[in-house]
Amino acid sequence: MPCLVLDERAYDLRPFLGADVSIRSIVDEWTTRLPELQKLADEGFTGTAELRLADLRPLPPLQPTGQIFQAAANYRQHVLDLLSAAEDRGDTSDGLADGDRRQNTRELLDARAAEGRPFVFLGSSHAIVGATDEITLPSDSQQPDWELELAVVIGRSGRRVAVEDALDLVAGYMIGNDLTARDALARWDAGVLGIDWLAGKNSPSFLPLGPLLVPAVHVGDPQDLHIVLAVNGTTMQNESTSDMLFGVAQLIAHISTVAEVRPGDVILTGSPAGNGAAHGVFLQPGDVIEGTITGLGTQRNVCVAETAR
């Protein structure tokens, strides 16, 4: 049921926008639909029942999604934290001493931000679940990890978009938790093929989205939002989107030079510092993950063990 949410109350959009309307169909026609939504919000929903948001199970806001573009290593402190975690494990596989590794990493991050390009890969929509659904931990992974992220929803098509025009393509924003099986990323037989993103990122339920899709006009500056994630009540991630190496506009511009972005596409903008790999703690069955981003609501997911089919 597509709903518009106001002050913790939800209103069914179908009596006003048509029986066949969905959030996805609204995004597909975002330029014309947004004024209709704003008018409904301003004038109220006379004659229709209101629902308590807390009584509803939020499904993923977009069904189906378009392409899922995922930015890797896009927060400065996140990269530095992963480096420190490798040092704590005594991982010297890169052949560098600790001091050299830290200095080289800082110089590389500075160079990437100044002259480089974002690193973006594609994900599977089959990993998507809702903001309160269970997260199934794969039986063959010992290092399932959280990665709370700002998710961008595209509302207009674009190809080779300039950075200064890129935010005009955004319909709105969501919360995304782009979970990772850390021990599935690196493969001994990969060599120059690099990271196995399929195995590390796309397990079923590894991408809770929502609970809300908030129009960009009501979010403000996407580089001035606060991201907080807690596991079992302990805060693990607590960072600003200002720590991104490449901001939302830069990510959209870059992606549009490689591919065409279309309405319904989702861009995951990278995760800030505080992942499990940095803390030396990974998810276990029974763990409760709670995540918030300024103005975008709250996710609460319980982790469960994978059972044999």
How would you describe this protein?
About 0% of the residues have low confidence. Strands 5-4-16-9-10-13 form a six-stranded mixed sheet, covered by helices on one side. The chain has a five-stranded mixed sheet with strand order 7-18-17-14-15, with no helix packed on it. The chain has ten helices and 18 strands. With about 300 residues, it is an alpha+beta fold. A hairpin with a 4-residue loop joins strand 17 and strand 18. Helix 4 packs antiparallel against helix 5. The two termini are about 30 Å apart. It folds into two domains: about 55 residues, no CATH class; about 240 residues, Fumarylacetoacetate hydrolase, domain 2, CATH 3.90.850.
The dominant shape is globular
**Mean pLDDT across all residues, rounded?**
90
Q: What is Rg?
A: 20 Å
Number of helices: 10
What is the CATH topology assignment of the largest domain? Fumarylacetoacetate hydrolase, domain 2
Biggest pleated sheet: 6 strands, mixed
How would you name the CATH homologous superfamily of the largest domain?
Answer: Fumarylacetoacetase-like, C-terminal domain
SSE string, helix = H, strand = E?
EEHHHEEHHEEEEEHEEHHEEEEHEHEE
CATH top level of the largest domain is: Alpha Beta
Structural class: alpha+beta
Oligomer description:
single chain
Query: Roughly what fraction of the amino acids lie in strands?
Result: 25-35%
- Report how far the terminal alpha carbons are from each other: 30 Å
CATH architecture of the largest domain: Alpha-Beta Complex
Residues in helices, as a percent range: 25-40%
Count structural domains. 2
Number of strands: 18
In order across it, which strands form the biggest sheet? Answer: 5-4-16-9-10-13
* Unreliable stretches covering 5 or more consecutive residues: 91-97
